[in-house]
C-alpha cells in the first residue's frame, strides 16, 4: 500500500513538472525556424531581409511587413487589427524562462500600446521595429 502511494505521488510530481516546464532555447529556436520558413514562403519575402530583422535592419519593404504580420497572426498575437499583448504575455509566461520573458514582456507592453497603423502588415511591422528599438539586447522575433 505504501509503495503504491509513493508511486502515485511520483507520477503526479512528474506530471506537474512536465506541465510547468518551460521550453528550452533550442526548442524555441526550432519552433521559430518552422514559423520563419512558413511565413517567408507565404509572404514571398527575401530571406536576407528576414535575417536582417535580428540585426535591427527594418527597410521599408512591403513583403517584410507582411512577413511580420504572418508571424504574429500565426502565433495568435495579432487579431482584429490589433496587437494582442495579453496573448503575447501568456505565451511568454508559458514557454520562456523568466529571465528572458521579463524584458520581452516589458517591451511588448510598451510597443503594443501604439494605435494600429490602419494596415495589418504595417501595424505588425511597427510593433516589431518598436520592440527592437526598446531593447535590442533582448529582442527576439522569428
From TrEMBL:
Protein name: Pheromone-binding protein-related protein
GO terms (BP aspect): olfactory behavior; sensory perception of smell
Keywords: Secreted, Signal
Organism: Ooceraea biroi (Clonal raider ant)
Signal peptide: 1-21
Subcellular location: Secreted
Origin organism lineage: Eukaryota, Metazoa, Ecdysozoa, Arthropoda, Hexapoda
Gene3D superfamilies referenced in this protein's UniProt entry, alphabetically: Pheromone/general odorant binding protein domain
GO cellular-component term (any): extracellular region
Broad class of where this protein is predominantly found: secreted
Coiled coil spans: none
Molecular-function GO terms, alphabetical: dibutyl phthalate binding; odorant binding
Family recorded in the similarity comment: Belongs to the PBP/GOBP family.
InterPro entries noted in UniProt: PBP/GOBP, PBP_GOBP_sf
Amino acid at each position: 500500500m505504501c509503495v503504491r502511494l509513493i508511486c502515485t505521488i511520483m507520477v503526479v510530481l512528474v506530471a506537474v513538472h512536465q506541465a510547468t516546464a518551460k521550453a528550452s532555447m533550442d526548442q524555441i529556436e526550432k519552433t521559430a525556424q518552422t514559423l520563419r520558413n512558413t511565413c517567408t514562403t507565404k509572404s514571398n519575402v527575401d530571406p536576407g531581409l528576414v535575417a536582417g530583422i535580428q540585426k535591427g535592419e527594418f527597410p521599408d519593404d512591403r513583403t517584410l511587413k507582411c512577413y511580420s504580420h504572418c508571424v504574429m497572426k500565426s502565433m495568435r498575437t495579432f487579431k482584429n487589427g490589433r496587437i494582442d499583448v495579453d496573448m503575447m504575455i501568456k505565451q511568454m509566461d508559458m514557454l520562456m524562462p523568466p529571465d528572458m520573458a521579463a524584458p520581452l514582456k516589458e517591451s511588448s507592453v510598451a510597443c503594443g500600446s501604439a494605435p494600429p497603423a490602419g494596415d495589418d502588415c504595417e501595424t505588425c511591422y511597427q510593433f516589431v521595429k518598436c520592440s527592437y528599438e526598446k531593447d535590442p539586447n533582448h529582442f527576439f522575433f522569428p
